[in-house]
Hints:
Blueprint: E1 2-6, H1 11-26, E2 34-38, H2 43-49, E3 54-56, H3 73-91, E4 93-98, H4 104-114, E5 118-122, H5 129-134, E6 140-143, E7 155-156, H6 171-177, E8 186-190, H7 197-212, E9 216-220, E10 236-239, H8 245-251, E11 254-257, H9 262-268, E12 273-275, H10 285-295, E13 299-301, H11 310-318, H12 321-334, H13 339-350
Parallel strand pairs: 1-2, 1-4, 2-3, 4-5, 5-6, 6-7, 8-9, 8-11, 9-10, 11-12, 12-13
Amino acid sequence: MTYAIAAAGTGGHVFPGLAVGEALVADGVQQSDVLYVGGTRLEASVYPEAGFPFLSVELMGLQRRLTAQNLKLPLVVKRAVDRIAGEFHEREVGVVLGLGGYVTVPTGLAARRLGIPFCVSEQNAHAGLANRLMSRLAVRSFGAFPETVGMPDATWVGNPIRQSILSSEPASAARASYGLDPDAPVLGVFGGSLGAKVLNDAVDDNIARWRAAGIQVLHLVGTRNAELSARAEGGWKVVPFEDRMHRFYAACDLVVARAGGAVAELTATGTPSVLVPGSFGSGGHQHANADALERVGAAVVVTEEDIGDLGPLVVDLLGDRPRVARMAEAARSFAKPQAAANIGAAMRELHGRVT
């Protein structure tokens, strides 16, 4: 009997999905019995490289404007449902989890056709369109925040993160691995696996100010911005991509980031943050995520329109050690580091039930 997980598109969907699969394996499920469903983007490399079986289907999202392309959507969804249902029947899938995005819709419909228990997990404080729709068919809904707008019945379990994020490493050792001074404060900056131009530009604009204040910058620029490494010097360490994020968090006193999936990692590692939410996505979800952390005192929110305030704000925060310590404690108090294990346990409990 197989467990199926549908997660596709960005790292914000893909890596929480991977975390749940790894939690199932840690709990005794055979890796070959965890089937991932997705399209042709990040998931098409991440899951097979991690050793899991993967089913790739044609995906297409709803365009939120009048366009003839939307007329193709019902046929694309039907073909995907047929293919997924066939694979689920052949593999004797006993429970299904959707993590939002386009792939959740045909996967949930395939599960319903076969009478397989279907669950959804939402990573943001405002649920995306797919999860808002498919949660109506779900026997369990899981949320990353105390309340999830659009999914009122969601249980607050947190956003699944990989256990490797929680690996312990002394700050001095982490800083030494990056060639940073172990005694000077470190500001970490990152905008996801591809990077975020607004954050990269902000570092460029403020690096002189931060150097003058004795602040080192550990900057994950994203794979498409690797050329920035040629300009870094004197306490500005540029890394295109980091697959050992526990080391990044261990090295940093404060992190500037977007407010997507990083929120779960920041809280789990007790990392104070300045969050710059993006306005993309469903319903401005990053703004809601960032506001939730700011309300509990774990983060300060800076909008893209006010990005010019970032430079002096960072200097003020890193000059106020007691405040940064309070932010770290607030982050830890908000964390749900066992989210993946708890969702996996719920899937095991539901496995094989007929709906």
